[in-house]
Amino acid sequence: MGKFFKYTFVVLVFIFIYLPIIYIIGYSFNSGGTMAAFDGFSLANYSALMENTRILEATLNTIIIAVISSYIAMLIGTAISIAIVEQKSIRHQNSLLAVNRIMFINPDIVIGVSLLLLFTFIGIEFGLLTVLIAHVVFNVPVVVITVLNRMKNIKPNVINAAYDLGATKTMLYRKVILPQIKDVFLLSFTLSVVYSIDDFIVSFFVTGNGFSTLPIEIYAMARQGVSLELNALFTIFYVLVFTIMIAKYLYGKFRVGGKDA
Amino acid sequence: MKRRLINISVVVYFLLTTIIPLVLIGYKSITNGDGEFSISNFTYIFQGTYIKIFYDTVIYSVLITIFTLVIGYPFAYIISRMKYRNEIILLILCTTWVNILLKIYSWIGLLSIQGTIAQGYLSIFPNSEGILYTDLSFFIVSIYVYLPIMIVTLYHSIVGIDEKYIFAAKDLGADERTIFRRIIFPNTISGVINGIQFVFIPSMTLFMLNRLIAGNKVVTLGSIIEQQFLSNNNYGIGAALVIIVMIFFALVSFITNKLKHSGSEIDELEVEAGDL
């Protein structure tokens, strides 16, 4: 009885989570224009999506913003991390860390509004530049946190050895520390790109007429109600996420299996 | 010299991107349209309609948090004891990686008047106007959006418990109920608090849900702020409302961090009691 109840509960929650997904994916292949009845199989919605210049442009914008903002955030974030590590007083270190956390933990709407006010105050025209800056602003803390976390693990004797051999501060970072934490740059870059692609609220507040990212375009389309092109886009997103997750899972399993043997 | 230059640039960076934007919110909230000092924005938002919005926002957020917790905890606990737990949690995790707007969109079709769920609802309540654009649909879709986040957070804190405690308890004759009550639940309190933090504040501020699912039936702090800034262009009132959000945020963080702290003390006490 207990077991039956448990499995029923798990299955019900799964139905709740996956029913909308299957429903949307199923209707993305509908040849009729609505989600009221399934008229027949067709890929028309996908070809319409591929010809939708607004969506294509927004996708391109999203990728450009994500890559450039993540790259800039990586440079600024690394510099800030080094500056924090190099602070002599613990109090200065802690206050810099605290300030860095502000834009990491704040609700998106607060970040969006505060940057909207900043850009109006300075008087920059809203568009690509403001969205780019906003993404840098919320990605820098992510980089700082991951880089500092990795720097903690560097053994002090490695640093001492470098000094004993006559390295200067610059040489220490360029030849010893940064090469040792290379892997964290890929991690923080990936994280930033993901945050950037996923962001809607901040971009929505700081964008102007004529510039939109994919989430903004999805929002605009969803406000009009059902559109099977969105179903097609939804399906592409899910297939992408599932492929990446399953590949990661199989890779992890394969590696663990290899170690055991 | 070089150190000084780097320090100055870091301080300037944080001033420009973090401190000044936040100060501007405060400044806007206590000035009127002409830039003169005035508390009229606050006196305006502390009257009838806005008080009701604050009240509704808190009630909705509390209900959403409680429901995701009540569904999410047993679910995470049950699957954490299953053989294929890694695969099952991966299926839940996948859904958190898809853009929230697409997840919200997936319910528009289901709930709109021709949709399957709406048809079922209409056959039970034939006199209603369907289910989309009601507070019920807002509630269902909110739970849909936050449940996977809650499950993943709780799951990690449950599987993070050292198996040795559970084995030891079993050896000493504890049944499953006692193990849950004395070991698993006390050790997952900080996970529960993380889950609350991940759900409660966003559910107050995500205005997309109000706009896409609830029409204008549900007005929360998030949707009213978006309206003040992007439709009404009333930055003063908007900024005052953002201050309210920040106060809520600070309060929730303060309380939950306090609880987390006392929670870890309980953990230590339990372990000590176990050692005795």
Task: Give a short synopsis of this structure.
Chain A has 261 residues and is mainly α.
Structure, explained:
The complex is a heterodimer of chains A (261) and B (276). With 261 residues, chain A is mainly α. Chain A has twelve helices and no strands. The mean pLDDT of chain A is 90. Chain B contains 13 helices and no strands. The radius of gyration of chain B is 23 Å and the shape is globular. Chain B has 276 residues and is mainly alpha-helical. Chain B has helices at 2-29, 40-45, 48-80, 85-96, 100-111, 116-124, 135-159, 163-171, 176-187, 189-205, 207-213, 221-230, 235-275.
Quickly list its features:
heterodimer, B: about 280 residues, mainly alpha, disordered C terminus
- The poorly predicted ranges of chain A are none
**Poorly predicted spans of chain B:** 264-276
**Rg of chain A (CA only):** 24 Å
Average pLDDT rating of chain B:
86
User: Helix/strand/pairing class of chain B, anyone?
Assistant: mainly alpha
H/E element sequence of chain A: HHHHHHHHHHHH
Helix count, DSSP H or I runs of 4 or more residues of chain B = 13
Approximate shape of chain A: globular
What is the quaternary state of this protein? heterodimer
The count of β-strands of chain B is: 0
Radius of gyration of chain B: 23 Å
Strand content of chain B: under 5%
Tell me the overall shape of chain B.
globular
Q: Which two chains touch over the largest interface?
A: A-B, 73 and 73 residues
E-strand count of chain A: 0
Strand coverage percent of chain A: under 5%
Please state the average pLDDT score of chain A.
Answer: 90
Q: What is the CA–CA distance across the termini of chain B?
A: 59 Å
Helix/strand-derived category of chain A reads mainly alpha
Largest sheet of chain A: none
